[in-house]
Amino acid sequence: MWHASVSLRDRTGPLHQPRAIEAHAVAALAGVGDTTGEWWIYRAGPRVGHLRVAVTPAELNLVPAGFVTMDAGDTGPRRRRSL
Prior knowledge:
Elements: E1 3-9, H1 18-28, E2 38-43, E3 48-54, H2 57-60, E4 78-79
Antiparallel strand pairs: 1-3, 2-3, 2-4
């Protein structure tokens, strides 16, 4: 599945809480992708959060060549979209 994602990491700054990192990720993906669901993954050790949303077919056609990366990592549990 093609998806758009935001990965945020903070070692010592203001984003030291999972909820703060998640809030920034949700805001960054507002208006992007499928509106029915998303995946949130947070790893406490490195304090990194990943928010993923499936892209729509129209959005997939907007991605320029070279801006796509392969990612077969964890997806976490699917949930309703935050926005």
